[in-house]
Amino acid sequence: MLKIKNLKADIENKSILKNFNLEIKPGEVHAIMGPNGSGKSTLSNILSGKKGYDVSGEVLFENKSLFDLETEERAHKGIFLAFQYPLEIPGVNTNIFLKTSLNAIRKARGEKELDAIEFLKLVKLKAQNLKFDEEKLNRQLNVGFSGGEKKKNEILQMSILNPKLSILDETDSGLDIDALKIVADGVNSLRKKDNSFLIITHYQRLLDYIKPDYVHVLMEGKIIKSGGPELALELEKKGYENFN
Amino acid sequence: MEEQLKIDFEKLLENSNFSKKNVEIKRKSFNNFIEKGFPNRRQENWKFSDLNQIISKNIKNLSFYNDLSKPNKIDQSIFIDSLEHNKIVFINGRIEKIEFDYEEKNKIEILDDLVLEKPNNNNNSLIFLNNAFVCKYFKLIVKKNYSLKKPLFIYNITNKDLVSKSINLKVDVLLEENSYLKLVELSNDKSVTNFININYNFDVQKNSILKNYKIDNNSNSNIKYYFNNINQDTNSVVEVFLLSSGSEFIKNEINCCLNGKYASAFVNGVFILNKSKHHEIKTNINHLAEYTKSYQLIKGVLEDNSKAVYQGKIFVNSKAQKTDGYQLSKAILLNDNTEFNTKPELEIYADDVKCSHGSASGNLNENLIFYLQTRGLNYQEAKKLLINGFLLDVVEKITDSEIKKLIKNIMSLKQ
Lengths: 244, 415
Prior knowledge:
The complex is a heterodimer of chains A (244) and B (415).
Chain A: E1 2-11, E2 14-24, E3 29-33, H1 40-48, E4 54-61, E5 64-65, H2 71-77, E6 79-82, E7 89-93, H3 94-108, H4 116-129, E8 140-141, H5 147-161, E9 165-169, H6 177-190, E10 196-201, E11 214-219, E12 222-227, H7 230-238
Parallel strand pairs in A: 3-10, 3-11, 6-9, 9-10
Antiparallel strand pairs in A: 1-2, 1-4, 4-5, 7-8, 11-12
Helix pairs in contact in A: 2-3, 5-6
Chain B: H1 2-15, H2 20-36, H3 51-58, E1 86-91, E2 94-99, E3 108-111, H4 125-133, E4 137-142, E5 152-158, E6 166-175, E7 180-189, E8 195-204, E9 209-216, E10 220-232, E11 237-244, E12 247-258, E13 264-273, E14 278-287, E15 293-302, E16 307-316, E17 324-333, E18 339-348, E19 354-362, H5 366-374, H6 379-395, H7 401-410
Parallel strand pairs in B: 1-5, 4-6, 5-7, 6-8, 7-9, 8-10, 9-11, 10-12, 11-13, 12-14, 13-15, 14-16, 15-17, 16-18, 17-19
Antiparallel strand pairs in B: 1-2, 3-4
Helix pairs in contact in B: 2-4, 5-6
């Protein structure tokens, strides 16, 4: 599904990712763990097409180069980024935003757009599954939401858009244990044989709830070790500094 | 221009039946205008909008006499049909229709045989110009304890017959005690390069409510000045909303005196400008009694070479303890050639008051656009959604739901 070969990324002449390689097959859950400044967020930004990076190498999604696609075209193809810091958008109603987003993607795929009633039915169901306060859907997007609610809102969007590849950028940061469980349940319920996940995190904690197939350790822009879930435990024990 | 002014002024007096008293006042006003001329940037009030230059740049051979003897045909398609309303229709400065079909007749009075007010020491030369050239001067009175059942729409229409003219209108509105008026002013201009000078006087008596929505949305090359003088008595409420978008130039000046205790004024507005449009909102909110309240929220979205100005002043008299005054302005500049000038002013002589002001302007937040793009919206859609949200915040302040809906439609705002 996703193939990254020799990816290099610089920002303002500073090298962030060096020779980064990764392959994710349909249905797989990969976790990338790394210390601050190792390039984790850069990776998620590049995969979703944020401007401002000089890149080289190859990133293929379903055998097509992502570099040829705009951010929204990547979303249309089924790539979703759950933000580390979800943004507040004053004046934009959450429901309207969700509907606009879903219908933009459906339209781009040649599918029928949902009308208001169909949409509300869908969003209600998804919100209930995530224990997301429905009253918040009528508020301005993320405005006045707590950190946990913002993260849950990201997962709600993910479950409504049902992407093929979901990238979770430190979704666990700032979550208390109850919210973490809800978020993890949300992710687990979306795990299907065709849906893949790339989970970017500092801590092993989230991986107690979302069992990854593979764990990779990212240091200074490169994957220095890959393995199964046990690698996360080893990392947690030793710390990044003593790991190598 | 002075030559033309004199010729046109004499022509006006010759062709009209003004009372002796009015002729006298008109002459005084005329001389006053001749002395002062159009305002320019050397006056503090006009430092961001040099009207003298704007007129000479945009209008060739401006003339001041306008033959109002013949009626104009009313284009019915201009009327809003989505909600029932009373109508006053001006076409090219001539009053064509006054229709209060929904109201009790003896509760509304219209006077048109009024004596002009003597020019005072006012520095505003455009009021003198208005006084000198206005033909019919109207006064609308809403009687004590009467609430209009339907809103009143004033249509200010100009058609293509009108070119390079100065149009002067003067309307007084008196809301007697405990009355209620919703007034929507809609302009529709097919004319080119005229100078339209409109003078409103609102007298809002005890316990009365005035909601005034001014909508300028059709693109046109006219230069406009609206002077709104508002006097508020005890416990009265005035709500003003300005949609400042269509004309080449508009300055909306609002001078509001909160004369009675517990009077409150809400002045909100949006600029939506493109090309070379240049609009200004200038407010003077005078807190002259205790427990008065004012609130102002102005937002702008500027494109191309457009320019918006907001000068907002809150004055608090030493007697006006417990005043609550607030103003905020924000603008999104969509490219480097746009300009947003804002001058907040607080002048406070009382010690127990709550007053605040703020202003911000900047580009659209690219991080927000990126966020929306990751959710499948393209750049244009993302930009539109953000601008929509930015402006909606002000439109949501409109307290009349029917008119709010109309204005959202006019602005093609979603939600």
